[in-house]
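TA notes, week 10

Several of you asked for a full example with nothing omitted. So below is the full record: structure tokens for the whole chain, then the designed sequence directly under it. When grading your own attempts, check the secondary structure regions first.
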């Protein structure tokens, strides 16, 4: 039997059955020895055979997994025949009918077991009546024993069914838990991949884009000096990208935020974005925001300015931040050529452009919203509103 919370109950019932059998058979043997009637040796032999059949049948019935029903039925029939033979010689053998009741109910099929209990009860009553006359005790005793055995047997079967159902339910719950854990793991992997994609896009990819533009400018430059200056800037940009990449690997907070978001944006405006020919005005107050919110605002600003550099052909960009209650509002406005936001979103799904989608994902992570006001020929204003917990 598979282990379950009811297994100790079943083990206890079987142990009780064995103890009951041994006690009643011991009583029969003691009666045979004490009385010492003629032919007592035959009675002792039958008692030993009965005990041997019981022990052997219990072992064989448990071992024969593939033919347990057939082996159990053969065991019960043999045990019943030896019991009847012993009952003819020893009237006290009628007491052995009580453990037989439980065997009938446990081993035989559901419809056969109760019938066997009734037949064995009648045999015990008749045997007691033939040996010592029919008395109230001789009739009521086996009948009460049969009733108790039927109740316990039916209760045992109900417990067994409940145990099987409970085991099936537990197995289903465990399988559901495993599937849920696998799904959560997969979602976590996908979310982490999306996060890394955004981080790489907003840092390393932008740095590489700047390097590409600087090297193109170096190729077009006349003379050695201008070309060398562009190459120097390309090298510095590559160094910054390498530092960002190593930082991602270590999973540390961006060092650029050590002194706050405002300082980080001003450094970018002075050291990186000015190289791209932009005049970036940073109007960001020194406010206390959670580090994850500051990181998200920094990356959104980097992505927005990178789009300005690559697509807007703008000269001036203004970054501003306002914090109102539980909302942080970042505005990035440029005087570039503008674009159609609807068309840009449609084209983003069929191209390798990731900037706008990355920004939308970041804003969605904080339960915020992204507003884009742009049109061809009149510049762009991007507003990212994040909820601050």
């Amino acid at each position: 039997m598979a282990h379950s919370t009811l297994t100790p109950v079943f083990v206890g019932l079987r142990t009780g059955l064995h103890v009951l059998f041994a006690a009643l058979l011991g009583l029969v043997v003691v009666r045979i020895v004490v009385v010492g009637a003629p032919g007592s040796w035959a009675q002792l032999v039958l008692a030993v055979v009965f005990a041997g059949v019981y022990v052997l049948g219990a072992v064989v019935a448990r071992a024969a997994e593939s033919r347990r029903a057939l082996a159990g039925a053969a065991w019960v029939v043999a045990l019943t025949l030896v019991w009847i033979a012993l009952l003819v010689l020893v009237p006290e053998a009628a007491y052995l009918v009580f453990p037989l009741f439980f065997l009938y109910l446990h081993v035989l099929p559901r419809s056969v077991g109760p019938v066997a209990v009734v037949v064995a009860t009648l045999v015990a009553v008749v045997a007691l009546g033939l040996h010592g006359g029919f008395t109230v005790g001789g009739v009521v005793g086996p009948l009460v024993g049969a009733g108790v055995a039927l109740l316990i047997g039916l209760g045992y079967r109900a417990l067994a069914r409940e145990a099987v159902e409970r085991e099936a339910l537990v197995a289903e719950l465990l399988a559901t838990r495993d599937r849920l854990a696998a799904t959560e793991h997969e979602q976590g992997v996908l979310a982490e991949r999306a996060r890394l994609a955004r981080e790489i896009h907003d840092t390393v990819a932008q740095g590489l884009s700047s390097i590409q533009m600087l090297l193109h400018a170096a190729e077009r430059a006349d003379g050695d000096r201008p070309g060398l200056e562009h190459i120097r800037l390309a090298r510095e940009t590559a160094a910054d990208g390498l530092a960002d990449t190593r930082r991602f690997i270590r999973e540390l907070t961006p060092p650029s935020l050590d002194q706050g978001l405002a300082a980080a944006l001003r450094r970018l405006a002075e050291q990186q974005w000015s190289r791209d020919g932009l005049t970036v005005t940073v109007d960001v107050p020194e406010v206390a925001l959670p580090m994850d919110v500051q990181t998200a605002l920094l990356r959104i600003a980097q992505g927005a300015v990178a789009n300005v550099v690559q697509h807007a052909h703008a000269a001036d960009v203004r970054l501003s931040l306002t914090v109102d209650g539980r909302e942080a509002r970042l505005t990035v406005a440029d005087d570039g050529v503008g674009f159609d936001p609807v068309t840009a979103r449609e084209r983003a799904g069929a191209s390798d452009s990731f900037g706008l989608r990355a920004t939308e994902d970041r804003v969605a992570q904080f339960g915020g919203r992204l507003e884009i006001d742009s049109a061809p020929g009149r510049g762009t204003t991007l507003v990212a509103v994040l909820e601050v917990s």
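The chain has a mean pLDDT of 77. Use that as a sanity check on your answer.
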